[in-house]
Design a protein that fits this description.
The structure holds two protein chains of two kinds. By secondary structure, chain A is an alpha/beta fold. Chain A has helices at about 10-30, 45-55, 70-75, 80-85, 120-135, 145-150, 150-165, 185, 195, 210-230, 255-260, 265-275, 280-305; strands at about 60-65, 140-145, 170-175, 175-180, 180, 205, 230-235. Helices cover about 40% and strands about 20% of the residues of chain B. Classes of the chains: A alpha/beta, B alpha/beta.
């Protein structure tokens, strides 16, 4: 499967967000029922993923992290193979070895996914160095969170990318949570974008819950990286509305803050806007939801039918 | 045959491999400064200095290796690898497996270690066993300039991440190096001296100490076999087992801490697979469970010397077979 073409129809953006939500909700209920392992979801952050990934070209390379469902699905990943991977099955993108946490799909240009917070930032300059030295046109897009921005690797990565003129679009999905710690308790600044200036890297923040704003900002940022062959940092401001790792009762979350962000749900906002401006009818909205539900049901059936890896797989692919 | 130091043999291997394959690049802490002749030949894009930031150097190598380049990185001193552990262990060593074999990581990490310069424990710490314990990585530590050149060439051509340790005490010792572009397979030990009474297994600078001990033992009528492992992973188990099968006695010697060192693994290997051949207990000689001091006598005392090796081997040979 090749990376999917960027969506131009706003209804497609909505459908992609619905697919991410339905996919992650299937995992949440699957894990509650004891059929799947717990995962780190990106519920509430769908617009940030869909907006940015739709701004990319097919030959761009993506590095992501443990909250990768939105990046993978928007890039065209098959939800059946993703669910198979989450369930440790043979037909998963990584033959069931990754589980949910480190899914790479080289065929989609999603490379070197690491769940070590900040590792994506460590690896990105090398991927960009390959693009540059081997004369490849694609830029490198590195998705990380505000938690990773507090790792030393963030600062080392930005310094080297600026020093070596590496074509990296750094995308910080600031979801306000660093595992079980609120961003306020862990960051000296309000925004990760503030730190980019120290390295001479242009940066901006955008509302990560507005898919159209995120798409426009990412298109401009990607164009700048493509033209300048230099790094750029885009911070999508959003909110992780579920816990760090399912199951999570979120007892540590300020309920007023959570309610305020739930009221700004990116999917509801997009749907309401499309209904209001007439580009979507209620019947079309219902059809989109139905189509997504069907895809997830088919994906789930595929994943459940996929066998577990054979015992001989235990030590395969350790060495080249 | 030309004579080179181990340091220059590393440069010769880099030069030959960079001429051979345009995807080979090298970067690290001062590599373009110290090896400016490589910059002259290959230009400042393929040979680069970096910030003193081992994590991002190693991470950049890992990312580049997975996407088409063959980087060699110089992280200077082995204790600095602590800053690069995540990139080497969690990324280079694991992401091939975790991705279901989608990526390979052809990269070489150079690091100096060992007694010789009185630099103290934050520049001298033989940490090679840590990487043997980490899946997905290969580990090499040569004891001669010729081996260093031939093994580094193989390490650069290998599709796996290789930790390549340079013994500080051997770095500027000259040795004959074949002029041709010879390579040596990783994972193959060499028998430097044949003998039938006792096997001395080592790597790095203590190989020379074993050879000196073998001379002393010969004077006392004991024929010691000396094996230089050269690679710690893959480990040439067959070479060790064959030798112990012949001699029935084993002394494993290394500068690294004895506790959970390579010697423990080799002793266990022999106990598991060649117990019936043993005529005496296995002896491990290694560094103490202490950081290495800068003071010259203390630094030297942390390294198994020839006299101690000879005494241990003689003790084994004096013991009666069970």
């Amino acid at each position: 499967m090749k990376p999917s073409h960027p969506a131009s129809d706003p209804r497609q953006l909505l459908e992609q967000m619905l697919l991410i939500r339905a996919y992650e909700e299937a995992i949440v209920s699957g894990s509650a029922a004891g059929k799947m392992p717990g995962t780190c979801t990106s519920v509430g952050q769908e617009a940030a993923a869909v907006g940015v990934v739709n701004a990319l070209a097919a030959d761009d390379l993506i590095l992501t992290n443990h909250r990768s469902a939105g990046h993978l699905l928007t890039r065209g990943a098959d939800p059946g193979r993703l669910l198979a991977e989450v369930m440790g099955r043979r037909d998963g993108y990584c033959k069931g070895r990754s589980g949910s946490l480190h899914i790479s799909a080289k065929e989609l240009g999603v490379v070197l996914t690491s769940t070590i917070v900040g590792a994506e930032l460590s690896l990105a300059p090398g991927v960009a160095l390959s693009q540059t030295m081997l004369g490849r046109p694609g830029i490198v897009v590195c998705f990380f969170g505000d938690g990773a921005a507090c790792e030393g690797s963030f600062h080392e990565s930005l310094n080297l990318a600026a020093l070596w003129n590496l074509p990296i679009l750094y995308v910080c999905e600031n979801n306000q949570w660093q595992a079980f710690v609120h961003r306020r308790e862990a960051m000296s600044r309000e925004h990760v974008a503030d730190w980019a200036a120290a390295y001479g890297i242009p940066a901006r923040t955008v509302d990560g819950n507005d898919v159209f704003a995120a798409l426009a900002a990412a298109q401009a940022a990607a164009a700048e990286v493509r033209d300048s062959r230099r790094p750029y940092l885009l911070e999508t401001c959003t909110y992780r509305t579920r816990g760090h790792l399912e199951p999570d009762d979120q007892g540590y979350v300020d309920q007023a803050e959570l309610a305020a962000w739930l009221a700004r749900d990116p999917i509801a906002a997009c749907r309401d806007r499309l209904l209001a401006d007439g580009s979507l009818t209620p019947a079309q909205a219902a059809a989109l939801s139905d189509r997504v539900s069907t895809r997830i049901a088919v994906a789930q059936a595929f994943a459940e039918a996929s066998p577990f890896p054979a015992a001989e797989e235990l030590c395969r692919d350790v060495y080249a | 045959m030309p004579t080179l130091t181990l340091y220059d043999a590393v440069g010769a291997a880099l030069t030959e491999e960079m001429r051979r394959d345009s995807s080979v690049i090298a970067f690290g802490e001062g590599i373009a400064t110290k090896r400016h002749e490589l910059v002259d030949e290959f230009g400042g894009l393929r040979i680069r200095n970096t910030p003193l930031a081992e994590g991002i150097i190693a991470g950049t190598a890992v990312g580049a290796a997975a996407t088409g380049l063959r980087p060699v990185v110089d992280l200077l001193f082995a204790p600095f690898l602590c800053y690069a552990m995540d990139e080497l262990v969690n990324s280079a060593g694991k992401l091939r497996y975790l991705s279901g074999g989608q990526f390979s990581f052809p990269l070489v990490t150079l690091a100096m270690t060992g007694a010789g310069w009185g630099v103290g424990a934050q520049h001298n710490h033989n940490v090679e066993a840590w990487f043997v314990h980490s899946p997905g990585l290969k580990v090499v530590m040569p004891s001669t300039p010729a081996d260093a050149k031939a093994l580094l060439k193989s390490a650069i051509r290998d599709d796996n991440p290789v930790l390549f340790f340079l013994d500080i005490g051997l770095l500027y010792q000259p040795g004959e190096v074949p002029a041709d572009e010879q390579t040596l397979p990783l994972g193959r030990a060499t028998v430097l001296r044949e003998g039938h009474d006792v096997t001395l297994v080592s790597y790095g600078k203590t190989v020379q100490h074993c050879q000196q001990a073998a001379e002393t033992l010969a004077d006392h009528g004991i024929a010691a076999e000396v094996i230089d492992l050269r690679s710690l992973k893959p480990l040439d188990e067959a070479a060790i087992l064959t030798s112990v099968g012949k001699t029935g006695r084993l002394v494993v010697v290394h500068e690294a801490n004895r506790l959970c060192g390579i010697g423990a693994e080799i002793a266990a290997l022999v106990a598991e697979q060649a117990f019936a051949s043993l005529k005496a207990p296995i002896i491990r000689l290694g560094g103490p469970d202490a950081p290495v001091a800068a003071s010259y006598p203390l630094e030297q005392a942390s390294v198994p010397q020839a006299s101690a090796i000879a005494a241990a081997a003689a003790r084994l040979c004096a013991a009666q077979p069970a």
